[in-house]
Write a structure and sequence with these properties.
By secondary structure, the chain is mainly α. Among the domains are: 34 residues, no CATH class; 55 residues, no CATH class. The chain has 6 helices and 2 strands, in the order H-H-H-H-H-H-E-E. Strands 1-2 form a two-stranded antiparallel ribbon. The chain is flat, with a radius of gyration of 27 Å.
């Protein structure tokens, strides 16, 4: 059984007050459903078990991969856009939509993109200090 967002929020707030089952019992929800709401497992996205077959775009995936590899070696202004890839594939006989190519390219970028790296800047109290110096001229602030 699916819980509405308002009841889910009520259960979560009552959990903090140590009465999570009270409101849901009145609405006649089962104990496992309430436990799911408390553990935040209600809104799990659906995942495919097997990838869908793509009979129209499937034969052209290799060509799109080749164009993406070629993009890595081209200067920035000469790289292929998705629309240009779509035009090239249409010349080669592709009859599908441009949005399907756009989906595939964005998924490939998400797979190959390197994650951002963050360095934590944590200092002991009194070890380091940072000050931004500003000179005021009338109503304007000029960084020094």
């Amino acid at each position: 059984m699916r819980i509405s967002t308002t009841l889910w929020r009520t259960i979560r707030t009552r959990k903090r007050q140590r009465y999570p089952h009270e409101g849901a019992r009145r609405k006649r929800y089962s104990r496992p459903t309430i436990e799911k709401a408390i553990s935040n497992q209600l809104h799990n996205p659906y995942r495919l078990k097997h990838p869908k077959a793509s009979p129209i775009f499937g034969p052209y995936q290799g060509r799109v991969d080749a164009l993406l590899l070629e993009n890595d070696h081209l200067p920035r202004k000469q790289r292929y856009t998705v629309h240009r890839m779509f035009e090239i594939l249409q010349i080669e006989g592709y009859h599908g939509s441009e949005s399907r190519i756009r989906q595939y390219v964005s998924a490939r970028h998400a797979q190959t993109r390197t994650p951002e790296v963050f360095l934590p800047l944590e200092f002991e109290p009194g070890q380091d200090a940072q000050i931004d110096w500003v000179r005021r001229v009338g109503a304007y602030e000029i960084p020094v």
